[in-house]
Amino acid sequence: MTESRVFRGLAAAPGIAIGPALVYDPVSATAAAPTGTATDEFARLEAAITQADATIAAHEAALRAAGRDEEAEIFAAHRMILADVALRERAAELLRSEGQGAAAAIATASEEQARELESLGDDYLSARAADLRDVAVQVQRALTGARGLGEQLDGPTVVIARDLGPSDLMSARREHLLGFALTAGGLTAHSVILARGLGIPAVVGLGAELLEHAADGATVALDGGTGSLILNPGTAEIERLRAAQASGAAREAALRAEVGLPAVTTDGQRILLVANASTPAEASTARAWGAEGIGLLRTELLFLERPDLPGEEEQLALYRAVAAELPGMPITVRTLDVGGDKHLPAFPLPKEENPFLGWRGIRIGLSQPEILLPQLRALLRAGAEADIRIMLPMVSTAAEVRQARALLDQARAQLAAEGLPHAARPQLGVMIEVPAAALNAAALAREADFFSIGTNDLTQYTLACDRGNSRVAGLYQPLDPAVLRLIAMACEAAHREGRHVAVCGELGGDPQATALLIGLGVDELSCAPGALPHVRSAVRATSTAAARTLAARALVADSADEVQNLLAEVERP
Question: In what order do the strands lie in the sheet containing 219-223?
């Protein structure tokens, strides 16, 4: 009997998949020799780009026809990459100066751009690097006739690969692709987003060792909820996972049935349950899962991957489109949050020794009003017809809030002088992301209308650890008592001034932490649309009195592990 092996990675898309493996290499041969002159090869490249564009456009159209606009936008972005003049010009240069063939030239050009994006150390941009490679593979296949994933699957299969592009997933018949396991990859990759939307179980970051042991046809059991993969599982393991699969399906059906129910604790406390989003499509998904508004609308996508800054009208269109998906509900918009790990092609930032401690967030907005003022004007105009709330990132002091409010007043005066409809006084809130903001919460609460706690950065700054650095990533513990004490401090100060407190970081979408956050004093939970039903269920199973007792015990705990053990004692619905 073949030995069973367990591999652990990151839980990327929930669900269980059990079936035969296919070890897949998405990259076609790139070293094909040129078949003619550089001019001939460029003509072949142009024809292949046109063919790849048609394939990608078909994926986009299929998703839009199915009402899956969020996933369709992935392929709209891929078409923009194909149209990138810089990519074509670099490929043409390689054809002329180095005598490469068309397939090799597009591979080299895209890889150069991809590595440049990865070198910036930003999760979002690293995910876009994967998109570049996926697009290049589509062009290579058009040139070489290499088979894609869909052509290699002839029955229900669990795919094992180093990485997968969104085009690979769309080329496969859903009944044939049981799930996929990647040795690399991250949780923000478009293939992962697509897998969640299509209901395909996935695990990523399993490590290169998996490829050394996996073989085509070997039985694989993958659990996208725990991030584990079992190679050659035994009968008992398969039976256990089949039972978990059936239980998960029943649980999912029960959660869907609760979508219309209010997020109210067992003793009557109302918790506002809202969603994090970046696009109207995500807002639409949030509405479908019963969101009561948007607690964090990220605006960076409008600014990234373009050579110019978006104008006021373009920004206004986004805010109106998102508000239209959730009519009458609050839409909390975070002003542009760049710096640190986020960079703008249209506004190059200076190299800094410690960019996370440097010029980022509201610090840029206040010192560069030509960027912040158009955004504030667009938000005020959107607020004339919707409940638009404005949220400032990376705030440390009350003085920053006063400066931002002065700019908001300036924007309002401009709009009034121009006769443009606008909100009279939208709520202006702050993100609690750095320890100074929590420690200054009393002063901030006198200046701001609400708080939203960004637990990702608050954890990172409190514990002085970069969660992207493998050497210190183990220190990144949102449940560390130090982080919890800062959350409690912010809630207490805000409530003294009658202010509302939300959590919009990853902890807000963790149903295991829901009772703890309620006990700490949080009034609103904002999370990814897919987490909404799980958090709603957790709220409805929570007693506020018991949650406060839990929080009191967590605040005097010695470690994150001790807090985790306390949470494990909480009864789950």
Answer: 5-8, 228-231, 219-223, 16-24, 157-161, 177-182, 202-204, 10-13
The string of pLDDT tens digits covering residues 396-417 is: 999 999 999 999 999 999 999 9
Q: The CATH number of 38-144 is which of 3.50.50.60, 1.10.274.10, 1.10.10.10, 1.40.20.10? A: 1.10.274.10
CB atoms within 10 A of CB 268: 8
Q: Is the dihedral of CA 397, 399, 403, 405 positive or negative?
A: positive
| Distance between CA atoms of residues 93 and 168, nearest Å | 29
Q: Across the strands, what pairs with 231?
A: 5, 220
* Token pair listed for 236: 């008992």
| CATH number for the domain formed by residue range(s) 260-268+430-573 | 3.20.20.60
pTM of the model: 0.69
CATH number 1.10.3720.10 given to 5-26+148-234: no
| Residue from 190, 343, 422, 534 carrying the catalytic annotation | 190
| CATH number 3.20.20.60 is the correct assignment for the domain at 272-426 | yes
Question: Is 206 exposed, middle or buried (CB count within 10 Å of its CB: 0-12, 13-18, 19+)?
Answer: buried
Q: Please tell me the distance from the alpha carbon of residue 147 to that of residue 149, in angstroms, as a whole number.
A: 7
pLDDT digits (tens, 9 = 90+) for 196-243: 777 789 999 888 899 888 899 999 999 988 889 999 998 988 999 888
Question: Do 260-268+430-573 and 272-426 have matching folds?
Answer: yes
Shortest CA distance to 87 belongs to which of 117, 103, 73, 107?
107
Q: What is d(CA 571, CA 550) in angstroms, rounded to the nearest whole number?
A: 12
What is the C-alpha end-to-end distance of the chain, expressed in Å? 40
CA gyration radius, the chain: 25
Closest CA to 72 of 204, 193, 224: 193
Can you tell me the distance from the alpha carbon of 382 to that of 554, in angstroms, rounded to the nearest whole number? 41
Neighbours of 36 (CB within 10 A): 12
Kindly list the domain boundaries of the chain, sorted by start residue. 5-26+148-234, 38-144, 260-268+430-573, 272-426
- For residue 370, which phi and psi values (nearest 5 degrees)? -65, -20
Respond yes or no: is residue 190 known to be catalytic. Answer: yes
Annotated catalytic residue within 343, 422, 491, 504 = 504
